[in-house]
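In keeping with the milestone schedule agreed at the kick-off meeting, the structural modelling team has produced records for the first pair of proteins. Each record is given below as a sequence line and a structure-token line. The laboratory manager (R.T.) confirmed that both were archived under the project's standard naming scheme.
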Amino acid sequence: MRSEAEVMADERVSALVDDLIGRVADKWTMLVLEALEEHGLQRFTQLGRRVPGISQKMLTQTLRQMERDGLVERTVHPVVPPHVDYCLTSLGSSLSEAFCGVWLWAEANLRKVEAARTAFDRRE
């Protein structure tokens, strides 16, 4: 039988998974994660250019949440105008690696998924 501490730990892990999947599955988080993984340390404006369609407000919100979750490190340089850099932490890189498997799966199964969707749409 599991102890109360083990049950509580499982509940906390479950809550974290639910929270992170909801956030990471978010379109913008995935795209920012990908941009930082591919290009490394970047300034806010560079990130904005690498994530097409994202507004400054949404980029700011996404980066703050990623920083709060320990996925991104933000460095402010005390110059005028302010210079702020963002990079993935080791935790962020490990999450990126985990999602790399999804990309590989999608690449390997693209034609099968497209065929299944076409067959389904024809039935409708």
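The second protein of the pair:
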Amino acid sequence: MKFENTGLEGMQIDLNQLTHIMEQHGMVLAGQWDYERVTYDRKFELKEGIYYLRIFGFAAKGDVGAEDALIELMAPLLGKHYYPHGVEYGENEYFPESLVQTCEKLLTDIKGEILYYV
């Protein structure tokens, strides 16, 4: 499920500031980066299954590995995890309304904090 019109898509922010903000909201970078891209995840374990809110970004300038990148954010996605195949984001997936609302609030809060820094 793609979150449209969150205001996050296209925003640019320093990698270190972004990581700090994301961590404050339970979003984890972990090993999900390369020199040009980052992915922040938050895992939700519900009775309906395991879901991931993912926020992707790419280095508009600089280098992620050197921690001096300016990250441009992309549209956030919500996906359901299927073992052993991975995460599916498709339109045919079921996403509990309470989870969608939680993710929307989380994205709004993250956007507000990013706006504070930019």
